[in-house]
Design the sequence.
């Protein structure tokens, strides 16, 4: 049903008050003017109510999944199924924190019985900056108004499209950040693998080698086609833990700058993709999980590609979501045999949780803690003394300059990176 706009309500109420008071005071001309204003509002309401509009709307996105902090372009095709032309209409697309809220003018669309009719139009808009997770885009809302803007009706048409928004992935060791800007000033930080863990070895391409073994980074560096030498590849497992205790840091976000919480998720995504690309089997676990879920580690393999990992991280609860915190002492791999690498991204931790990480050190080959600014420095000193390598990051630029092991270096060779040592608070 149509509704009066604020302007329509003002004209109707003003006309009624003026008309009644003028009539009682004997000013008939003024009374007619007031009553006429009220009648105009009534006619506008009936004109909007009587419009019978039939439209069909289809929606498409310019990509299957969005990236947090970026945008997607949404295209809408609006088709007029009625006999009369559709003019003077406005539109907007509804959605959870995705679609702009203001209405826009819809170009005129001919009726289906008109000669040489153009019965459909395409409109586009760019989404608001995306946030990680699943979001609804739609439905489409068609807004009809009278020429004076006194009455309005809004009709929702079409289906809802679901958009998956994954965390951005930073290329480690580079200054380029996927989907975000930044000059990535080099910090000289390095996360080195323990020498006790076998490393990936590359060699020159030989006739008959599968193309799936080509290592493109080593190829670009050496100027000739290089492949992974899988005869000497050893145990390549990595265990990633996101240590987070919701509610212990500010939820305020600056546009274009991820909060510490989201930066931690991006760090897990970037390291996970980096390791998958280099042939690792990666297990990822969050310290706390949504209610109703076990929070057990999920394992991803190079053959799957990074898609499954990014989809899982897209659904990690955002700040404010209900969570069940698990004890740090219950975490950790149970592999048997050779030990995996362990990388822990910490947002906040209690002294007892840090003690638990110290006790877990023996479960891993290389063991690294990546700390966000929300973590106290003295806790990091304790981890460093226990044999954990420690690095602090506070921005995407810092993340872009973290260096994990790069294939192409033979076991025993060192890139002579700068050690992080103890973190300073």
Sequence:
């Amino acid at each position: 049903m149509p509704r009066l706009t604020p302007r329509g309500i003002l004209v109707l109420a003003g006309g009624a008050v003026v008309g009644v008071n003028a009539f009682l005071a004997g000013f008939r001309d003024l009374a007619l003017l007031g009553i006429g204003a009220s009648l105009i509002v009534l006619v506008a309401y009936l004109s909007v109510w009587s419009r019978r509009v039939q439209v069909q709307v289809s929606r498409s996105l310019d990509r299957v999944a969005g990236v947090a902090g970026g945008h997607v372009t949404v295209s809408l095709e609006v088709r007029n199924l009625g006999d009369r032309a559709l003019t003077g209409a406005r539109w907007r697309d509804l959605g959870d924190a995705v679609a702009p809220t203001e209405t826009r003018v819809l170009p005129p669309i001919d009726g289906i019985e008109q000669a040489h009719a153009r019965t459909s139009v395409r409109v586009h808009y760019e989404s608001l900056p995306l946030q990680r997770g699943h979001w609804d885009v739609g439905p489409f809302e068609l807004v009809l108004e009278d020429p004076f803007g006194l009455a309005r009706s809004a009709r929702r048409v079409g289906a809802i499209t679901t958009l998956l928004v994954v965390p951005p992935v930073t290329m480690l060791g580079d200054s380029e950040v996927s989907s975000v800007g930044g000059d990535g000033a080099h910090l000289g930080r390095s996360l080195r693998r323990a020498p006790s863990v076998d490393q990936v070895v590359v060699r020159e391409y030989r006739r008959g080698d599968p193309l799936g073994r080509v290592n493109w980074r080593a190829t670009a560096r050496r100027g000739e086609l290089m492949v992974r030498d899988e005869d000497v590849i050893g145990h390549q497992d990595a265990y990633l833990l996101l240590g987070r205790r919701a509610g212990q840091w500010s939820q305020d976000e600056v546009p274009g700058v991820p909060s510490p919480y989201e930066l931690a998720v991006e760090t897990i995504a970037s390291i996970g993709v980096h390791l998958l690309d280099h042939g690792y089997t990666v297990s990822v676990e969050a310290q706390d999980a949504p209610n109703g879920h076990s929070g057990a580690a999920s394992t991803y393999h190079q053959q799957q590609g990074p898609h499954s990992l990014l989809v899982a991280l897209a659904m990690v609860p955002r700040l404010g979501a209900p969570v069940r915190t698990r004890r740090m002492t219950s975490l950790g791999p149970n592999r048997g045999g050779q030990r995996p690498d362990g990388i822990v991204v910490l947002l906040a931790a209690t002294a007892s949780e840090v003690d638990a990480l110290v006790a877990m050190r023996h479960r891993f080959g290389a063991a690294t803690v990546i700390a966000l600014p929300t973590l106290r420095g003295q806790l990091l000193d304790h981890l460093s003394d226990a044999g954990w390598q420690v690095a602090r990051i506070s921005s995407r630029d810092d993340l872009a300059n973290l260096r994990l092991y790069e294939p192409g270096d033979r076991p025993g060779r060192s890139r002579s990176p700068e050690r992080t040592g103890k973190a300073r608070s």
